[in-house]
């Protein structure tokens, strides 16, 4: 009972930051992301009688007990559905270099979800697979699909309508997504905890949720029109608003490093010089840039020269999660 699946990381253009149900990872508002071709996780799930407990290997090393517990809890959802009790060996490798401070729970849980159900001989529709991946991590629901993807907030308390769906596939628009690495230190607070803390203590949380419908609508329009300026403008606005929430939480969470701000300024400077490039920042110090593929080299070389920038990874839009092999024993 073994299967291997690959899923790609994604960068949210309209951010998910707030849960209506913490146990089920149900978002309060919708989000829209772009799937990243060059950042992926390949995971094999093997259900084995010989094992006593679930084992998680991450990039060739045994994962921390905390990470193993999280994956074990997720595998329980698959075991319940498949009515099996076997422990599993989960072997996960990231395509992006270790120690870069990049870790994607989205590509991890999307690949574990797909490899897990196949190893357990289950078949799920893409929407049901997205719903399952969401239980591992909210953003993983989006990594089931390629290109531009929308996650719905949904209304149901069981989360059956809080699933992602594709908006446009990876061939729709040749844009580049450039991840600028500015720090390899662990971030101040994980996303789950950070969004719960922001929701409880930031005075701006209500305004964040109220303004999300407009951001989603604008992003839809920008994608339909392939309008990079419109897309980039709303993506920057959504990122900065999300960081305004963490900065206004009590106590504040500061995800940025000095280099993060330097990169924001460099992007604005490039725009002044006529290069259409925009930024997005998740819950950490790294900045992801969006530009037309024709501007990739000029953006990359401008960013590489900035003191504090430790690396630049260029990606295109990537595909959804897929299985590589299936074996039954
Ligand atoms: C800033 O999906 O990691 O990347 O659902 O608690 O696992 P959990 O959170 P997670 O949060 C992602 C936050 C974000 C924005 C986004 O991807 O939409």
Topology of helices and strands:
Elements: E1 2-14, E2 19-21, E3 26-27, E4 31-47, E5 55-58, E6 61-62, H1 65-82, E7 88-94, H2 105-119, H3 126-136, E8 148-151, E9 164-168, E10 175-181, H4 191-201, H5 205-210, H6 212-224, H7 228-247, H8 258-272, E11 277-280, E12 287-292, H9 296-304, E13 311-316, E14 322-327
Parallel strand pairs: 5-7
Antiparallel strand pairs: 1-4, 1-14, 2-3, 4-7, 4-8, 5-6, 8-9, 10-12, 10-13, 11-12
Helix pairs in contact: 1-2, 2-3, 6-7
This protein binds ligand DP6.
Residues 12, 15-16, 25, 31, 105, 137-139, 191-192, 282-283 line the site of ligand DP6.
List keywords for this structure.
329 residues; 8-stranded mixed beta sheet; 4-stranded antiparallel beta sheet; 14 strands
Sum this structure up briefly.
With 329 residues, this protein is an alpha+beta fold. It has helices at residues 65-82, 105-119, 126-136, 191-201, 205-210, 212-224, 228-247, 258-272, 296-304; strands at residues 2-14, 19-21, 26-27, 31-47, 55-58, 61-62, 88-94, 148-151, 164-168, 175-181, 277-280, 287-292, 311-316, 322-327. It is globular.
């Amino acid at each position: 009972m073994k299967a291997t699946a690959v899923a790609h990381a994604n960068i949210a253009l309209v951010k998910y930051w707030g849960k209506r149900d913490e146990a089920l990872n149900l978002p309060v508002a919708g989000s829209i992301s772009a799937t990243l071709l060059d950042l992926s996780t390949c995971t094999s799930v093997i259900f084995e009688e010989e094992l006593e407990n679930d084992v998680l290997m991450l990039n060739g090393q045994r994962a921390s007990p905390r990470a193993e517990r999280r994956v074990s809890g997720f595998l329980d959802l698959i075991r319940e559905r498949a009515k099996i009790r076997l422990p599993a060996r989960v072997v996960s490798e990231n395509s992006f270099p270790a120690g870069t401070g990049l870790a994607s729970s989205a590509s991890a849980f999307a690949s574990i979800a797909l490899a897990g159900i196949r190893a357990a001989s289950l078949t799920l529709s893409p929407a049901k697979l997205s719903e399952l991946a969401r239980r591992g991590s909210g953003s993983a629901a989006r990594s089931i699909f390629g290109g531009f993807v929308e996650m719905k907030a949904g209304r149901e308390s069981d989360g059956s309508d809080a699933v992602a769906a594709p908006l446009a596939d990876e061939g729709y628009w040749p844009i580049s997504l450039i991840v600028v690495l500015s720090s390899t230190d662990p971030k101040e607070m994980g996303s789950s905890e950070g969004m719960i803390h922001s929701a409880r203590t930031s005075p701006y949380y209500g305004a964040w949720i109220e303004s999300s419908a407009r951001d989603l609508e604008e992003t839809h329009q920008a994608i339909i029109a392939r309008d990079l300026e419109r897309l980039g403008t709303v993506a920057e606005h959504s990122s900065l608003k999300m960081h305004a929430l963490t900065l206004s939480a009590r106590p504040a969470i500061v995800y940025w490093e000095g280099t993060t701000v330097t990169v924001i300024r460099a992007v604005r400077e490039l725009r002044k010089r006529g290069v259409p490039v925009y930024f997005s920042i998740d819950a950490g110090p790294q900045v992801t840039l969006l530009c037309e593929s024709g501007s990739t080299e000029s953006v990359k070389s401008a960013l590489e020269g900035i003191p504090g920038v430790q690396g630049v990874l260029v990606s295109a839009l990537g595909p959804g999660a897929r299985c590589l092999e299936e074996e039954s024993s």
